[in-house]
């Protein structure tokens, strides 16, 4: 039986989780032989032999006994440097860094191919839910129509507190931070970037196409107000931050991240608190739903362990769908129906709606329900961040340009 | 790119579904080149070129261009003969026959090993939900504690009608048969055998141990009465037919199929109608939930397609966990808390309860809530099939013999 000797980069919450999980997995045949950290003196909850630690990346990269690098540092640029260097040296890597992967995936795929080396990253999307592996292996066909879900636990926790416990948004955010579900700078989670990067990675494995993050409309929950929550409650729906990639025709797919009104009949309606939930819809199997803990030390670590164990059998992503001859192209030329709430900002002057279905003018705020092209939203994105503006998708229909 | 030339055995509901799905999957590189059926004259909804059909199995088994056999006939003995013959000839097989696989898996694993040939059967357990592949590949470690779920769509449909629509059991069964969710002889589904065979297969891939079906306590829903339904409603729970395999200690696991009182806080509570739902619980990732259509022509066919596509990349199950050194052993020496309803049959005389927690004596029927060993239930199984007896698990606790 092969033995995996791991060089671990990062010993924060996730790194310590990996250390614990590998100790518990008696049949894993894996061992952490070196740990590279930024600072040796930082106090840590999980105790590891001090002799394992180094602050020099090359102590791992040049150690001939190490046959796998596990990288869970939270600096995307440093992560990129280490992963690229390791792959170029032919050392396989398991990474959980969604920002780094989402921004560099085309290059990293090339390097994997040219150097015949594996980069696995299932933990980067939805923690312990095996989305990437299933899209790559099990849904290895062109029947797939849609992947849609709640991919960020922090923002979902906040929205759950607001909807189910009637906390204010500020209370919910503070509570999320106190519990460690949100970073001290929570914008990465609540502005939708975390979901966006996961969606970029998912799309490569779902439809075989890489779309750069900046080409994708992304809108978070930071400007949600009581009036939006009240509106949703009156309609009997919840507001969830939803990421989705959808085939809109045989030739095109679209993708975006934005708050959405979710009715009780939808699977993701009951994905609450810090959980993630992903719906995979296909032509013949209808909808599959996967649900689990999307973040946290041990769930993420157990996902990393799955990738580590896969290396025992020389597993690598084949990126089979990248080679498909008939692949749909990315488009933002689709019609959405959205809810746009505003007060001082003149949203109707900023956004060109194709049709206004409803308009409400109140003393404190106004809203419209209107049909609008996704391309229009993407183009005007920078004008839609004012604190008095909030947008949400109303998933009634997708219309492509032909109807 | 390799090309898969399929010899298909069986052209019933699932076989026709496979034919349709492979036509739709443009990038599948797979083609059905021969179809073996029992009768050429049977009218079929899906039209296929008559030249494809044969009634002679050897027309497929001896055809050198065929590099994959897909077997979806509903006769377990005929299925066994064909699959064994094919594997011994070195032809890989995809099968959906849970009865055949659950009863012959040890031998089929040996044949795969000795002949270096693959047998894939993800469709045999939970239709379109990728349980086997995930247990084999993604949960390829010893952190797994439990796999528990609703594995049979027909019985679940019946129970849903009874609980959510207040149909009588007889009405619900008739409705299930009318919709094609239940066979004209529904005992396979409602007596729990379908769930049992799936559980046997799941356990091999979950914990690395094969347990023969006859060693596993299996109890269905055919004797459920209005009084049981009323009891469950009063307690605010649903009755579901649940199959489970659970590690009860580091050294032991147990498994059984029986109706269970399911409270609204459980994931499987909301698995209704003909759907299946599986909860996978592990030491570090807590609970993962997978949900989808467990049966039906196209969902099953799309699962078969996943196995077919996997053969493009020479995928086979490695049965890694069978090789684990530290594996838990099967035990029935665990304590359960059950509900036992009866009228004429003297259940208290048949079953030796360790403790009676509640006893109700009524004019029409009686029940007890008591603690009992699973081994006792298994031993007395044949005496518990009287129409006036119904048992259900109350999943409050598992006690092994030490506490």
Quick summary of this structure?
With 403 residues, the first copy, chain A, is α/β, with parallel strands linked by helices. Chain A contains 13 helices and 18 strands.
What distinguishing features does this structure have?
homodimer; 403 residues; alpha/beta; seven-stranded mixed beta sheet; six-stranded parallel beta sheet; 13 helices; 18 strands; globular; disordered C terminus
Question: Please, could you describe this protein's structure?
Answer:
2 copies of one chain form a homodimer. The first copy, chain A, is of the alpha/beta class. Helix content of chain A is 33%, strand content 25%. Chain A contains 13 helices and 18 strands. Chain A has helices spanning 13-24, 57-61, 76-88, 98-115, 131-138, 153-164, 169-178, 187-190, 193-207, 226-234, 297-312, 347-350, 374-379, and strands spanning 4-9, 30-36, 53-54, 68-71, 93-95, 119-120, 144-150, 217-218, 238-247, 252-262, 275-282, 286-293, 329-330, 334-342, 355-361, 366-373, 390-393, 399-400. In chain A, strands 7, 8, 9, 10, 11, 12 and 13 form a 7-stranded mixed sheet that branches. In chain A, a hairpin with a 3-residue loop joins β11 (275-282) and β12. The radius of gyration of chain A is 22 Å and the shape is globular.
Helix and strand layout, with pairings?
The structure is a homodimer of 403-residue chains.
Chain A: E1 4-9, H1 13-24, E2 30-36, E3 53-54, H2 57-61, E4 68-71, H3 76-88, E5 93-95, H4 98-115, E6 119-120, H5 131-138, E7 144-150, H6 153-164, H7 169-178, H8 187-190, H9 193-207, E8 217-218, H10 226-234, E9 238-247, E10 252-262, E11 275-282, E12 286-293, H11 297-312, E13 329-330, E14 334-342, H12 347-350, E15 355-361, E16 366-373, H13 374-379, E17 390-393, E18 399-400
Parallel strand pairs in A: 1-2, 1-4, 2-3, 4-5, 5-6, 8-10, 10-13
Antiparallel strand pairs in A: 7-9, 7-11, 9-10, 11-12, 14-16, 14-17, 14-18, 15-16
Helix pairs in contact in A: 1-11, 3-4, 4-9, 5-9, 6-7
